[in-house]
Amino acid sequence: MKTFLPILVAILSAALGIFFIYKGVDKHFLSPCKVYGPDSTLPQEYMNLMSALCGSGFTKIVGFLEVLAGVLLVFPRTRLLGVIVLLPVIITIFLLHAFVDNRPHELVETGIPLVIAVLIFTYHYKDWKGIIVKK
């Protein structure tokens, strides 16, 4: 049982890292900014916000942070730093879908990486508790 948890965290970290490397590269090179048509079923507020974020270049910065965090997550030595960089990004994406987008499946799709990142962060509790707790 003692070897199961480190192996599980390594697999989840590698999977999350590869996923966010892909998503970050996708924001930069593979998918252009979306243009929503008048027949779109998405909420108007969501379309306006995404158009503004995409037009301002904010999504490029998020994509860079996703690639950086993904690369850091893949390697065990930098895994904690990777999850520390990635958690604010994932939380922001999750909250965006929770408050602006009204599609429940998006909460599931963004909630799964959030839960995995929190599990990885919690696994490394011994490493970061010294920063918070005075000795």
Verbal overview:
- This protein is mainly alpha-helical.
- The protein has one domain.
- The protein has six helices and no strands.
- The protein has helices spanning about 5-30, 45-55, 60-75, 80-100, 105-125, 125-130.
- α1 crosses α5 (about 105-125) and α3 crosses α4.
Let me know the largest β-sheet: none
Helix content: over 70%
Give me the Rg, rounded: 17 Å
How far the N terminus sits from the C terminus, by CA atoms, comes to 30 Å
Structural class: mainly alpha
- Low-confidence stretches are none
Task: Give the oligomeric state of the chains in this entry, treating copies of one chain as homo and distinct chains as hetero.
Answer: single chain
The helix-strand sequence is: HHHHHH
Give descriptors for this structure.
135 residues, mainly alpha, 79% helix, elongated
Offer a concise description of the structure.
With 135 residues, the chain is an all-alpha fold.
SSE topology:
Layout: H1 4-30, H2 44-56, H3 58-74, H4 79-99, H5 104-123, H6 125-132
Organism: Flavobacterium cerinum
Protein name: DoxX family membrane protein
Transmembrane segments: 49-73, 80-100, 106-125
